[in-house]
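Example 3.2
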Amino acid sequence: MGGSPRPKAIVVGAGIGGLAAAVTLRRIGMEVEVYERAGELRAAGSGLSIMSNAIRALGTLGIDLGLEERGQVIEHVEMMTTAGRTLRVLPYKENCAKLGAPSVCISRSELQAALLEAAGDCPISLGAVATGFSAGPDGVRVRFADGREAHGDLLIGADGIHSAIRRQLTGPEPVREAGYVCWLAVTPFAHPRLTRGFNGHYWGKGQRFGLHDIGHGNAYWWGTRNMTPEAAREWNGTKADILRAYQGWAEEVTAAIEATEPEAVIPVPAQDRPFLERWGEGPVTLLGDAAHPMMTSLVQGGSSAVEDAVVLAQACAGSGDPVRALRAYEDRRRAHIRWLVERSYAMSAIEQEERPVPRLIRDAFMRLAPKSVLFKPFETSMSADLPTRASVPAGAGR
């Protein structure tokens, strides 16, 4: 990149996408400053899966976060009825091996720790609530609510679904609400059904449950239930309410809920946004949920943010023009991300189906469709056309 020998990127947001951007941009030799609105860096007490595509993408920059040791490689994926009867086993491990990297289920706190370790001495400013930005010939300036300003050559908005950077680029936009709540939790848990690398998905009438081994004696579980968008946004029930919602389900489902401390359960309304075609202008772009929040059905929320960060760094490493590099990053990601957002939304509606006939069709398809057909959406989601291994400057990221 032209200009100063170490161009500087301002990253707003220290979630998965923002920290991944800090790691990848420092890896190619850029100076990075991260600004986070929260007063402390504390990951939400839930889990997620980092899929093969994200791990493979990081490898193109020579980055290994050690996620297999921090979490648990996904080995066994079962789709089941509410009673725990198997509808289908998905060939996740073997298909991930064909894609060149494992998929790992991990707690958000362990993933955050891995990213912070990889980011090294990157400065991270907390309590920094971004209120706007201005761009000019000398780069971009970001303003914060407490009067601070930050100046850099590039601005990366990685500040989540309610991004202040996106709001200035696009104007006010309503979120798209799917009409169900998600309960999320990580808890110490042992059960005969929770074998090593187990990932179970239980499908019911307008509700689902997921149970995942994340290693080290811990499980990540999530539950969903249809309700009005208003009720999902404002849900303030108890653990007893959640247990009642899963009364009569498989024993391991209720056992996982019972094993969880009430304060460890996080309720989240199911929300995304329709796909945004234009992610930036001038020296400003968006990344992760700020650019493309999506439903969880293809398990690509966190992974696509990591992949964004890699593609962004690849574009910047190969360009002498920072602004052109941002447009190249956006162009490279647009088609694949559009497919992820739209397909995840459509799959979410099928998974949350309440009507008897569509549910019978859904479950019959799961039992009878060829494995190659069942896995195809996940294979496509993990098969973005990534750049080849980047040339990393000597000493970069140290």
